[in-house]
């Protein structure tokens, strides 16, 4: 019971303080609207400051609500855009700003009624406790009325009816005030917390950022492995093959067990070098490291078995994994056009648009691509899917064939 009364007192303090703050918020909303209007008329500095004040005001109430409910909340960041259009971008793009405005409206809608109800119940208890013993102070034509209708004309009636009124409104406060406080506090926190859709969008944004970091790290690791294999392992294999070749030539007689072993070792070393070159090329083509994606694609189309033209937009800096995927998609598409389509012309178009690399390869061949026949399209799909990209192959019978790929490339 004691704990319950303490909770009632805490809730009363919470709601009684929330009443004037809700009234202040009511007056602040027109000022915020005026600041927004001033931003549209050229007063760009006032609106961000008003949003900052609203954020701090909402955060103070958020901490009060969390303390009442016994929960923990982490502080929210205040983003500040740069540029002439930053205030409007902040309103349109920052979900926290919209939550602040939503909280302000909800605080006014719930804080004022809950605060007035608390004033009515608690205030009546305090007023009765003070006024009942002083019933005689009131003038005869305007006596103290208790329980709403009964005038206090004597000590017995004043004390009895005062006790009943105190007990009744105390019970009302005991039952209603904590519930009102919990309702208001939970509504306050709910207004400032992201919705499930907002949480999903924020999670997608976090995953996008982490994926960009993983792609950068993966690209750097690809370059390092390619460089180590090319400059280290491959060079050692070349040296071993040369020594084996010299040893074979130094034998006076090319027959015998030793000569046979040297010949097998020499041929095995050369095969290993060929396989290593293929691994390096399929992992991260050296031409990408030397010329970048535009130069590598230009060389690729220049050496194509089908006449090809290329249209490159402004690609900017790309993760190594994305560069490699785009290179292999174009290479495989050119190979398929030369081997299977009977095309006489191929057009390659690569652009970058809002964080995505768009690659399109179109030929004028006979079409009818069948992925089950090992045309390499399945391998391209797996490579694109590994980077969370999308791939669309359009190849009706009679042609043309078009391979369109979108790869995320934000870094």
- Span of the ends, CA to CA: 60 Å
Q: How many structural domains are formed by the residues?
A: 3
What global shape is seen?
elongated
Structural class: alpha+beta
Listing every helix as H and every strand as E from the N terminus to the C terminus, the arrangement reads HHHHEEHHHHEHEEHEE
Radius of gyration: 39 Å
Number of helices: 10
Which stretches are poorly predicted, pLDDT < 50 over at least 5 residues? none
β-strand amount? 5-15%
Q: Largest sheet, order of strands side by side?
A: 3-4-5-7-6
Overall pLDDT score: 75
The count of strands amounts to 7
**Biggest β-sheet description:** 5 strands, mixed
- Helical fraction equals 55-70%
Give a written overview of the molecule.
With 411 residues, this protein is α+β, with helices and mostly antiparallel strands. It folds into three domains: 2-193, no CATH class; 207-283; 290-408, Heat Shock Protein 90. Helix content is 67%, strand content 9%. The chain has ten helices and seven strands. It has helices spanning 2-40, 46-69, 86-93, 95-131, 155-192, 196-250, 257-283, 286-302, 320-341, 377-386; strands at residues 145-146, 150-151, 308-312, 346-353, 356-363, 390-394, 401-408. It has a five-stranded mixed beta sheet, with helices on one face. A two-stranded antiparallel sheet has the order 1-2. Helix 1 (2-40) packs antiparallel against helix 2 and helix 2 packs across helix 4. It is elongated and about 135 Å long. 26% of the residues are buried. It is an enzyme of class 2 (transferase). Its EC number is 2.7.13.3. It comes from Nonomuraea rosea. One of its GO terms (molecular function) is kinase activity.
């Amino acid at each position: 019971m004691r704990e319950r009364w303490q909770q009632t007192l805490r809730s009363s303090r919470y709601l009684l303080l929330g009443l004037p703050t809700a009234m202040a918020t009511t007056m602040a909303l027109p000022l915020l609207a005026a600041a927004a209007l001033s931003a549209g008329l050229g007063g760009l500095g006032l609106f961000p400051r008003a949003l900052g004040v609203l954020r701090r005001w909402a955060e103070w109430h958020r901490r009060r609500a969390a303390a009442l409910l016994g929960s923990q909340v982490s502080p929210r960041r205040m983003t500040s855009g740069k540029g002439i259009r930053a205030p409007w971008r902040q309103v349109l793009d920052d979900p926290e700003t919209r939550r602040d405005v939503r909280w302000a409206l909800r605080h006014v809608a719930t804080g004022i009624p809950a605060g007035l109800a608390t004033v009515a119940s608690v205030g009546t208890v305090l007023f009765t406790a003070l006024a009942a013993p002083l019933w005689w102070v009131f003038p005869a034509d305007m006596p103290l009325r208790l329980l709403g209708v009964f005038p206090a004309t004597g000590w017995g009636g004043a004390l009895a009816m005062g006790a009943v009124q105190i007990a009744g409104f105390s019970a009302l406060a005991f039952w209603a005030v904590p519930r009102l406080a919990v309702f208001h506090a939970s509504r306050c926190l709910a207004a400032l917390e992201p919705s499930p859709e907002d949480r999903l969008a924020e999670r997608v944004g976090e995953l996008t950022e982490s994926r960009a970091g993983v792609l950068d790290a993966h690209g750097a690791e690809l370059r390092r492995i390619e460089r180590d294999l090319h400059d280290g392992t491959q060079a050692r294999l070349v040296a071993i093959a040369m020594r084996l070749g010299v040893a074979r030539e130094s034998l006076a007689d090319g027959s015998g067990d030793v000569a046979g072993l040297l010949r097998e070792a020499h041929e095995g070393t050369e095969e290993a070098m060929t396989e290593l070159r293929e691994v390096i090329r399929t992992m991260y083509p050296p031409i990408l490291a030397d010329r970048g994606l535009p130069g590598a694609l230009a060389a690729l189309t220049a050496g194509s078995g089908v006449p090809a033209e290329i249209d490159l937009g402004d690609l900017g800096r790309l993760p190594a994994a994305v560069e490699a995927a785009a290179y292999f998609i174009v290479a495989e598409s050119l190979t398929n056009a030369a081997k299977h389509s009977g095309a006489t012309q191929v057009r390659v178009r690569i652009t970058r648009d809002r964080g995505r690399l768009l690659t399109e390869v179109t030929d004028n061949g006979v079409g009818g691509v069948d992925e089950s026949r090992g045309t390499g399209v399945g391998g391209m799909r797996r490579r694109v899917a590994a980077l969370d990209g999308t791939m669309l192959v359009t190849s009706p019978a009679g042609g043309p064939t078009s391979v369109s790929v979108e790869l995320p490339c934000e870094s």
